[in-house]
Design a protein that fits this description.
The chain contains 8 helices and 7 strands; from the N terminus they run ααααββββαββαβαα. It is α/β, with parallel strands linked by helices. The protein has one domain. The strands form 2 sheets. The protein has a 5-stranded mixed β-sheet, with helices on both faces. The protein is globular and about 45 Å long.
């Protein structure tokens, strides 16, 4: 079984070994995990050693994205295998990378937004495309190998069609296309949530019982 690699996963566990067990306990849909992420980020960011609630909720959503891509790696609607989060020292626009269903490189940018209706613009994706092409060898001519994973509604139509020309594929919290909606994929999906808990337990055991 894979082990969660995001740096903040182990850092948070060392401050509260039950944090992720408590966070996901009883959760069965995206609406509930969003609420829990917001609540814990508002109330516990100082205790967990984060500079503010925005940094904590951003890192927690990146950890959730890592879980999502690992657990659903075989789903061809997702099309991401061997997902790995980028280390914080290298985080300049790409949050994760892996292989697509065609075996070619894919990159992921993870964006938390509290407003589920928010539509992202090119300014919010920073160096995502350029860094994907230069450092992670994503084919500049491909469509769908650049992935936006967001709690919001996805890309603004102008950014999608005119700026990125359809190259960025969005997996979103509120979708017009059901197949690319996070809730559509995980709500009341007992297999997903059970595998999530198993992944968290295994990763926690690997951190605390390495020897």
């Amino acid at each position: 079984m894979r082990v969660l690699q995001h740096e903040s996963f182990s850092e948070i566990l060392l401050k509260d070994s039950e944090f992720f067990n408590d966070l996901f306990d009883g959760v069965q849909d995206f609406k509930e995990i969003k609420k829990r992420l917001e609540d814990v980020s508002e109330n516990r960011y100082e205790e967990l050693g984060f500079i503010d609630r925005h940094k904590l909720i951003g890192d927690l959503f990146e950890i959730f994205a890592e879980i999502f891509f690992i657990v659903l790696s075989a789903d061809n609607r997702i099309g991401v295998n061997d997902y790995s989060p980028v280390k914080s020292v290298d985080d300049y626009g790409v949050d994760g990378y892996g292989k697509g269903i065609n075996g070619q490189p894919v990159t992921v940018q993870v964006k938390w937004r509290s407003n589920p209706r928010h539509e992202m613009t090119s300014k919010e994706l920073n160096e995502f495309t350029g860094l994907s092409y230069r450092k992670y060898d994503v084919d500049p001519k491909s469509k769908g190998d650049l992935i936006l994973f967001t709690s919001a509604a996805g890309l603004h139509w102008h950014t999608d069609a005119r700026v990125f020309e359809g190259a960025v594929r969005a997996i979103v919290g509120k979708a017009k296309t059901p197949d690319t909606s996070i809730p559509r994929l995980i709500d009341n999906n007992f297999g997903f949530w059970n595998d999530t808990k198993a992944l968290i337990k295994h990763s926690t055991d690997c951190i605390f019982f390495k020897g």
